[in-house]
Predict the 3D structure of the following.
Amino acid sequence: MSVRTSVMIAGAGPTGLTLACDLARRGVAHRLVEKSSEPARSSRAKGLQPRTLEVFDDLGVVDAVRAAGGDYPPFRAHIGPLAIPAGRMSPLAKLTSEVPYPNLWMVPQWRTEEILRERLEALGGHVELGVKLGMFQQDDAEVRMKLETDHGIEEVTADYLVGTDGGHSSVRSLLGIELHGHEMKQDAPVILADLEIDGLDRRVWHVWPLAKGCLMTLCPLPGTSFFQMAAPLRRGVAVPELTEAGIGRFVETALGVGRVRIASVGWVSSYRPHARMADRFRVGRVFIAGDAAHVHPPSGGQGLNTGVQDAYNLGWKLEHALAGATDALLESYDAERRPIAASVLGMSKRLYGKKSAKRGSETQQLRIGYREGPLSKDERVHPGRLRAGDRAPDARCEDESGAKRRLFDVFRGPHFTLLVFGDSARDAVAACAGWKSAIRVVRLTSKRDVARANALIDTSGDAYASYGATLGSLALVRPDGYVAFWSDGSTKALETYLGQVLGPKAAAYGQVANACEHAPTSTDCVGK
């Protein structure tokens, strides 16, 4: 007899861990398996974009991520005997009311994964190491699969399977999906290594543009004693032996004997940059995400971050599909994420072709949205700058006691958030009643309404300004932080939208007495 779970996740990198954390906090039964027998210890993708930090805020790990990392350091170019300051990858920006995490944040990938594993364990889940997904079959009702473990074969049945198992994904291969694209134009691979180096200044990112046989960079990894070495080889240069001794000889040849003293080598690898994408992210009850669905060149720091966004998009949809939502909700995963992956890949390829390492706001993923997606509906007569499908910005507000509150504080969690701009949320609460355990209703008042209780007060005007809202308007924010629905105040249109996206009013959505119970200080509870 097969063991049963709701969602099986194959691959415990950042994408799989993000999805598992999201499902765990939603109470969705799942398993996360990883074929490797122990966690990875490589720095690899070390850059977390501002949008990813917002996801981690929602998942409850941003404080740990911030404590483990740091801003990207400035470059120092070494040319012969000269050491020349060469600016930063991107200028450091100040946080604003709309954007609480404005800068790229550096954390070694192994540490990001460690933080996510710790969060998953706190939520009651865990990673099953040394477990390989074998063959699987699916029909209209379930996915049947075999897991290969040290103890033999285990048969498992799940409602859904998600492949987050990397660029060489077995899930993608078994689905018959191919990656389309190409290897970037380069005659030799890139050598990556984590090195402990004696006496090298850790305040800067060292670059040797004229190193022998390669362009060499050494970037200090915050929270560790290591530097990440990245060395794209020049044409015709042989790949060094990927051992501690081999890397030592490689660095000495590139920079000269005695220029850099390597104390130890923590990890070493080589790769050839690719830009490839699958033509489908879903086949029936099976999905692919992260590198299994799209493989990025390192330029722009988009690979890990796009995978995290895939998982964040899919988690809430799986929960609601299991609760009775229509299949159209699951179909929106491919419709929303595949165009984004294609756009991000295009940007990464353009950046890869540039000689400069400088980056702008286009890489931050804050402008990514789903305006043209099937879940975005804007009913307003005169839509403003912020549209349905756009990222829902943060804003500084207060509750009725005068305590500081951010919109992200009320967004945080597995629910939808209905922002009601105006005096009363009574009609909005009534419209959401059929799905009340899934939606938190938050009334946003202006300065004129500061005396009213049970409201979030926009004392600075930031929220009304950022959203371009008028009194009486309604903005429904999805669990993944994008505006799903806008109206000038029509609760009937809202109710129709909820029925189309989440399915008919069902008992599964009526088990919580009222959404206000989640956060009574920031919610209008007139519907209780």
About this structure: Residues 377-522 form a domain with the Glutaredoxin fold (CATH 3.40.30.120). Confidence is low (pLDDT under 50) at residues 510-528.
